[in-house]
Amino acid sequence: MTQTTFTRQLAHHITSSPRMTPEVSSWMRLLLLDYFAVTAGGADRDSAQAVRSAFTLSLERTQHFPAALHGAAGFAAVEDAALINGVTAHGLELDDTFEESSLHPGVVVFPAVLAIADRDGQSVDAVLTAAAIGYDVMCSVGVLLGARASYARGFHPTGIAGALGAAAAAAALLDLSEDQAAHALGLAANMAAGSLEFLSDGSWTKRLNAGHAAATGMRAAKLAAADFNAPATALEGRDGFLRQYGEGLPEGRELCLEFGRGALDTSIKFYPCCRYMHGNIDLLRDIHDENPGIGLGDVAEIRVGVIKAGASLVSEPAERKLTVGTPVDAQFNMPFGAAIALATGRATVDQFDDAPQVARDLREWMEKVTCYTSDALESAFPARWEAEVSVRLTNGNLIEKSAAAFRGAPQDRASWADIVAKAEGLIGAAAAGSLAASIELMEAQGPMTGSVHLVVEPV
C-alpha cells in the first residue's frame, strides 16, 4: 500500500486533473497581468540587467533558445529563462503575496510554466491550470512550514517553498504520473535554497531566490520525468524539509488542498516594499489625506504595529533601520515606509529607488516612528494580516486607525481595473492597455506562446 506522505498528498493534487472554473480562470488571468506588469516594470533594474548578462541569449527564438524573456528582448534556454524572469519579476517588490505563508508565488510559478509553454506549446488553459496547481502547492507547503519558523532560521519562504511550487506546476504541465510528481517534489525539497542575509547590506539575493526556485523546480520535474527518485518522506522525515527549514511538523498541522485556493487567497501589492509594511502605509496615507498640511512640527510620535513574524525583516534592529544605504534597505524598513506615507501621502517606486536621499530628507520623520507588537495583530495572524497605527500630535490630539485587512488582500480584493492602473504606472497606458487586452482575449484552448502582447522596453 502506498504511504500517505505529504509529498504523496501533494502529488495526488498535482495529477488529479482538476477542472478549471470561471472564477479561477479569471483570477489567474489577473495574476498573470500583474506578473507581466511588474516584470516589465523591473526589467531595467541593475539586478535584471546583470542576470541577463550572465547567460547566453538569442535575439530570435530557436530550438536551443525557445523561451522568451519578459520585459526585455531575447530568448534563452528554458531553465535560464525561468531564472532570469524570476529575478526580474521580483526586483520591484511589487509582486503578489500569499500572506498566510508570507511568500511570493507569481514570480516563481509563472516563470516556470511560461518557459515550458514556450518550448512545448501548451494551451492557455493547460498553462493556467498548471500555474494554479503551483500556487496551491507552494502556498500550502509554506503554511505547513510556517513563516515565523522559517524566518527564525534565516530562510526566505519564497526561495524554499517556491522550489516545490515550481516543481508542482512543471509536473502538472508536463503531465507526470503521480509517482513522478512525488519524486519531483522530493527532489525540489532537496535542492531548495534561499537565505535572508540580503537584509544585512541590501544586496540582490532575495531576487535571486525567486528565479532560483523557478529553475530548481523545473529541474526537479525534469529529473523526475526521467524516473530519478527522491525520499518518500522528503517533507516530514527526520532530516526532511520541514525540519531543515522550520521546526518540524507542529502537532495537528495538515495540508489543505483545494484547486485554485492558493491563487484565490493571494494578495496584490500596490507598494514596492515588503508586504508586512503595507497595512500601516495604507493607514498612514489615509491620515495624511485626512489632515491636509500635516507637517513635521505637528507630529510628536508615530506608532505602528508590526506582526512579529515580520519584525526581523522590517523593524529590527531599530537603530539599523535608521540607516538607508540602498533601495533594498528601504524595501524592508517600516520607519522609512511610515515616514513617506505620513509625510508625503505616497509610497512609490521612485521614492524607493531614491531611498538614500529620501531617507536623509525624512530622517526626523523616521526618528518619530516607534514599532511595536500587538496582541490583536498576533491573534489574527497568520490567517489574517491586520494593521494598526497611531499618530500623537504636538497639540495633544491622538489619531488612531486600524484595518482588518491590507489593501489588495482577499478581504479587500483588487479588481482588473486596479491591476491595469498599476500596470499603467509601470509601463505606460498604451502598453498596459495592449497587455491587458491580450490577456483578457486569450482563448482557453489556444496556444499560450504568442498570446500575450508584452512591451519590450518598460517606461
Mean pLDDT: 95
Q: From the alpha-carbon coordinates, what is the Rg to the nearest angstrom?
A: 21 Å
CATH class of the largest domain: Mainly Alpha
The major beta sheet can be summarized as: 4 strands, mixed
* Beta-strand proportion: 5-15%
Overview of this structure, please?
This is 2-methylcitrate dehydratase PrpD. Residues 271-442 form the MmgE/PrpD C-terminal domain. Belongs to the PrpD family. Residues 9-248 form the MmgE/PrpD N-terminal domain. With 459 residues, this protein is an alpha+beta fold. It has two domains: 6-270 and 416-440, 2-methylcitrate dehydratase PrpD (Orthogonal Bundle), CATH 1.10.4100; 275-403, 60s Ribosomal Protein L30, Chain: A. The chain has helices spanning 6-14, 22-41, 46-53, 78-89, 106-120, 124-145, 147-152, 157-173, 178-191, 205-225, 241-245, 261-264, 278-290, 308-314, 327-331, 334-344, 349-353, 355-361, 363-367, 375-380, 416-427, 429-440; strands at residues 67-68, 75-76, 299-305, 369-372, 387-393, 398-403. The strands form two sheets. A four-stranded mixed sheet has the order 4-3-5-6. It has a two-stranded antiparallel ribbon with strand order 1-2. The relative contact order is 0.14. The mean pLDDT is 95.
